[in-house]
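Sanity check

After download, print the first record. It should look like this:
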Amino acid sequence: MEQHRAVVVGAGIGGLTAAVALHQRGWNVTVLERAAALAPVGAGIGLAPNAQRALDVIGLGDRVRELSAWQGDGGMRAPDGRWLARTSAQAAAERFGGPLVLLHRATLVDLLAAALPDGVVRTGVTASLADPGDDHRPAVVRTAAGDHEAELVLGADGIHSAVRRALFPHYTGLAYSGFTTWRVVVPAPARPFAPHETWGAGRLWGTQPLKDGRTYAYAMAAAPAGAHAPDGEKAELARLFGDWHHPVPDILAAADADGVLRHDVHHMPRPLPAFHHGRVALLGDAAHAMQPTLGQGGNQAIEDAIVLAHHAGRGLPPSRALAAYTADRLPRTTAIVRKAALTGRLTRFSARPAVAARDALIATVSRFGPGLLLRGFDGIADWRPPATAPLHPHTGPA
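Expected structure tokens:
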């Protein structure tokens, strides 16, 4: 990787994090984004301590913490408002080295983009992989304006990744989870509420505060792939969740019908054989799309980016550097994809006896304190970056 040229396909959270990390290590980075502008869809993103520590490596962890709405004590509820389990921000911070923080995705994207020189991110560019390269020749990325040769290409182009299809054309492991999701951002309700996630029969709702005073809400329900409500998604949410506890009805009343986002959830229950080929590596959803039930999709993309930059900066031949990246990331993300799918099956329970048994189990476990519930994130939220000195000093949680 002597010439240190890198092309990142996709300017989402993972792609931009990788671009920043490589830039700080001296790489000449170009980010190619198909969208006309960096206007990320979605709303909030929760960053667990593992992702915050990854961002510390590039000097952005403290800034993220400052911009974030810290999640206080909250928990899990039933649709009638009963608390099934209480969570403790303090207990989480003590167990994992910091609390979960929440911010708008656009805020995080803007922060990452601002850490790159002008001209690095090029929007409105459709890119395809023409040649993955090898230890003796560069990779080639093709665009309408011409080809880009690079010592490293990163496929950060999402769930339906074109780079992944070029590297692994016979992979057929992308699957519909059986769930669709909705997301919305609204002004904060007049009546206060505690952050919560509510599990019903085959349905889930979450409400979380943003630091700017708005509220982020998300919902998930079993549905056929590709389905859409004939009278609009706000009306569909009202049918599914309109009689749930406060603040759900207030959120629905405040939602702009055009601002409700709906997306089917696809994931990769069968892992790829590797996350790299030649001089090309995959990261984030392109490598290991997962259900959102653990809130780790974006977090794992950030981890990917930092680990990849670490190995790419060690002066190894591409074949060795990217093989080390795959060895670090494939087992970990495969386990998290499977754990997220298992949690998704729990939320999909719809028969009344199964729902009652699930809720009773959650309530029983919670009586032994938050430690038992938090144990499910052991090995996930306590992850630490590779043992190298941060590129920038920070003062955040160790």
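If your output differs, re-run the checksum step. Summary of this record's structure: Confidence is low (pLDDT under 50) at residues 393-398.
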